[in-house]
Amino acid sequence: MLNILNLILLAILQGVFEWWPVSSTAVLILASKWMGISVSESYVYGLMLHLGSGLALFILYHKRIFCVLRKFIYEWSFRKILFNGYLWGFITSLIIAYPLYKLYLESTETSEIFGLFLIGFLFIITSIMLSISGGGVREEIDWKAWLITGFFQGLAVLPGLSRSGLTIGVLCLLGYKPEKAVEASFLLGLPALLLAGIYNFYSVLNSPFRNQVGIHTVLLLTLVVVLVSYISARTLIYIASFKRKYIFTTILAVLTFIFALLLLIF
Question: For 43-92, what is each residue's pLDDT tens digit?
Fold first, then answer.
């Protein structure tokens, strides 16, 4: 049954798990089974609520974003655009994501489970490497790292693959400090979240779902996601700053396996 309490719970789940190495799609599917909501309904609202997650990121990094935009406007040059690793990383993610989205539009829950276990193993490997090496030391994300990260962000369009899980894990494996990996993952995902959220926000308001919730409810849900996403993101950043860096990826691995098992059971 679709009611305001169920929708608020979905909004909270979206806000919490957008940043953690757990597919928010998988979490929403699991929650929809418990609440009796159809998978299609939870999926549609989950996509729409990405807007709230994007706005939370914008609030979190607004000073840095405005600084970069100001510098870009006043120091614009074709060469800087051509060799901008962040820009090409985002473009790469779009190039990878679109055909995969079209190809796997009708993916089954089996891919959800496989994706969660895959990310869990990625973080286990990362934890072992960080415990041996003493933690990543690289800080400045170069253009090659942006491209690689963009590639894996594109793969995350597949059901069950966590965008934040893949991108943070890959950057840690490349030797970057976990706190830098988290920041880069957030910044690379910001435009994608905003674009996806705006598109699906518009789609919901022009679909039959609007008759069930209304514009005021949609705005309320977005506000809930902004608040919860902000707190969740700040928590992840804090954990990433632990002195023993392998603790960070070990925590993420454990959380991932727990949700994979829950999805498998239910």
Answer: 667 777 888 888 999 999 888 888 877 766 666 655 566 557 888 888 99
105 or 214, which is more confident?
214
Q: Are residues 150 and 89 in contact, defined by beta-carbon separation less than 8 angstroms?
A: yes
Closest CA to 43 of 85, 13, 16: 13
Domain boundaries of the chain, sorted by first residue:
4-265
Please name the helix (run of DSSP H) or strand (run of DSSP E) that holds residue 160, with its range, or none: none
Per-residue pLDDT reduced to its tens digit, 104-126: 555 544 555 665 566 667 666 65
Residue 188: CB atoms within 10 Å: 24
| CB distance 259 to 27 below 8 Å | yes
- Which residues are registered as beta bridge partners of 138? 176
Residues pairing with 176 in the sheet: 138
Q: How far apart are CA 246 and CA 127, in angstroms?
A: 5
Does pLDDT of 98 surpass 90?
Answer: no
What lies within 8 Å, CB to CB, of 48 at 6+ separation is 197, 200, 201, 203, 204, 218, 221
CB-hemisphere CA count at 13 Å for 201? 21
Query: Do residues 56 and 149 make contact, with C-beta atoms less than 8 angstroms apart?
Result: no
